[in-house]
User: Fold this.
Amino acid sequence: MPSASTSCREEEFIECLASITNDIVDLQYSDIISGGDLNVDFASSCNLCSNLQHLAKELGLKFVFDKLPHDSMATFRVESTGATFLIVSN
Assistant:
């Protein structure tokens, strides 16, 4: 997904969402796993977040972020050192 420094970011973001939709809408799937940095801050109420959440709801998709325990928000862990990291965008 386009980063915050991309010119015409919102238009490119919408085009990416449309492409994703076109790729999976006709598939008969029970599970889809997709990885990558979506370059949005789910804590904000920006248009990009709204569009992404609408797509997810429309296609019945869930985000890993929604599955994390609220007392331990981390998308990366190193068990041996206890280091954690939450991948978010600014």
Notes: The beta strands are 76-78, 83-85.
